[in-house]
Amino acid sequence: MTRLAALLASVAVLLGLCTAVASAEPATTTWLCRPGDTGPCGGGSDKPVDCFYVYPTASLQQSVNADRAPSPELAALAAVQARPFDDVCNVWAPTYRQLTLRNLATLDGPSRDAALALAYTDIRAAWDEYLAIRGDDRPVVLVGHSQGTRMLRNLLRDIESTPARDALVSALLIGATITDDDFSTLAPCSAPGDTGCFVAYSTYNRPRPADARYGGPTAVCTNPAALGSTAPAALRGPIPGITARCDADNVLRVEGGISGSLPTVPDATWGLHLLDITLAQDSLVDLVRTQSAAFLAR
């Protein structure tokens, strides 16, 4: 698959252009990806660092919460977002009873909160199972996007005071509004060699609308191509010739190449949400490689 084809595939997957297949809900964690298994994330098992990946809203099931079936749209999305990390870490990715695409925008606040709380119980259970297998001293990078980032924000709050906190290489909290007040011991990464920190941003290719879903005065924006800087830097991914900078609205503003013609789907308030990870894929993989080396050296 060419880099541009991968970019278009990520749009297609996140727009729900696949067919979902539901099955009976298993009693324990179902792993969409795990080291050594043939699957959408590559199955690598020889890296000294793990990646724990939580996918964004993708389920096409009709219920409020999906079941834990590893349906085709989840596998397709993991192949786009998570598989590139197989070069630098062993990828673990649980399925979870996420709030589905059909109900994301239609539920009232309390119902939405309840659905997300149920989804998180699966992520926490999967994390506990992961620790039981790998141990709480295994170096790990957390990788999430959109609803997956919401899940990881909750997980990080739960593990900040546990031994697993010391094994955190970094957390890539992409495509959600993360603030400095979300954590008590975690700070934004400010240099490539920083560890035990987080990266957070949402991507726009036009000025952020006043009613935008992401960014704003309290948001954290960390440019994966130039941590700690607001200057434009080359963003490495499937589109050559684009730069990225964290602007005054605390969003990652991309310019150059064909970035200006990329669709803001479903509307301008979302920016380039569907492509948050894909546009910066190589920059993110490079960052995880650098952070992992720094963590292991210490």
From TrEMBL:
Q: InterPro entries, from UniProt?
A: AB_hydrolase_fold (IPR029058), DUF3089 (IPR021440)
Q: What are the UniProt keywords, alphabetically? A: Signal
Report the Pfam families cross-referenced here: DUF3089
According to the record, the signal peptide region is 1-24
Say if the entry is tagged with keyword Nucleus: no
Keyword Signal recorded: yes
Give the protein name, as stated in the record: DUF3089 domain-containing protein
